[in-house]
Task: structure prediction
Amino acid sequence: MGNLSNFVKRVRDIMRNDAGINGDAQRIEQIAWMLFLKVYDAKENDWEWDEKDYQSIIPEPCRWRNWAHDENGKGITGDTLLEFINNTLFPTLKKLPVDASTPIKKAIVQTTFADANNYMKDGVLLRQVINVIDELDLSDYAESHAFGEIYETILKELQSAGSAGEFYTPRAVTDFMAQMINPQIGEKMADFACGTGGFITSWLKALHKKVKTTEDEALYANSIYGIEKKQFPYMLCITNMLLHDLDVPQVFHDNTLLRDVLDYTKDDQVDVILMNPPYGGSEKNDVKNHFPADLASSETADLFMSVIMYRLKENGRAAVILPDGFLFGTDNAKVAIKTKLFSEFNVHTIIRMPGSVFSPYTSITTNILFFDHTGPTEETWFYRLDMPEGYKHFSKTKPMKLEHFAPAVEWWSDRKEIQLDGFDKAKKYTVQEIKDRNYNIDLCGYPHEEEEILPPKELIQQYQEKRASLNADIDRILAQITEILGIDLDAQD
Result:
């Protein structure tokens, strides 16, 4: 296992010399498809042991064991290797015969390779990378478990790999949310924009502590459901699930927002939802057609909130990360979504998080909404999580840790209103107080926060949201004044 600790460094050092790799995002994507095939091959060894008539969906020449393994330096390399990967391996895996009857554990190969790419152009360097990956002994339980931790560091690197960071939620945040949700054996948890599977792995980690019997083990293995729209994070997620011993990962390559929310039935509902919906994203205009007119927002996070409300079981629980724009927004769609949320669900807790939690990917401040489907909200607690002592902001070298949530965990079980320097840090509001604010729930915020300089796209989005909210507030107040005065502004002179 000595080689595991410097696994990422060894692969990175080799790839730096290849002209086809342009930046961290491509490097990680290149590693990802090779790791998937290595991990899948180890799984197939297990399946062949358990099922005497097991047949691989991958043709024999394309199975990792038959082309990647370099016995005594006799493995294919150079131009021959490049020719095989580009003209045989990829075309074969992309076109594997898959239909509705194909078992999930076989279908994932074709789905994983649907949009995958080989970026490397030097066949000798490619052989070196493959050899490093092939050294992993995933049949050894200890080494396989240790590699699961290494894989986590690969996912962390996504945070600073350009736009790829949008698929990764810091593990401290997903672990905290799973801990507060308190998973139970027999429950099904969903993430409808699961990225690399961070929430799913945190859920599995918390749930596994409660597994006592073989029946529990079966329920544990069937306790997750994920959807991911983009192919690259989907590939990373599937590999993540296989490393976590989920032989049949219920994770699908699809776009959650392309289904009419009114078509969901009780069979589509789940016990728990843990999510960080994409925000600031853009969907095609016709996506709005899948939502009732009053809930049809142009903001991706708003649309996901509607999906969550339609797919959470009665008595189900949810923890969802949402940007500040959702809290302060009072445009028509946001008010309609929040009206539905507070009148049909119990929004019991909102945790305000510091702005740099997702640094360096984004500086937009986010919040965690905890709610359950047990009836309408009567009161909501707000709690501001301040930066830990000695930190000005989180960064790649000083990331957020689970221990930084300790004050929130302590407060959670013994709730009190807290004032700090004359500002509310924790406070309870009745639902009537929230309605009276027209569902502007920007409460217990950060009084001394330094102004963040956002990237242009995010800055424009933030200003647009604030303008939409101000316009909505002005329209509402004008309507109230004209009603009191009995003036019809639409009437012609």
Q: What stands out?
A: Residues 456-485 form the longest helix (30 residues). The chain has a mean pLDDT of 88. The longest strand covers residues 312-323.
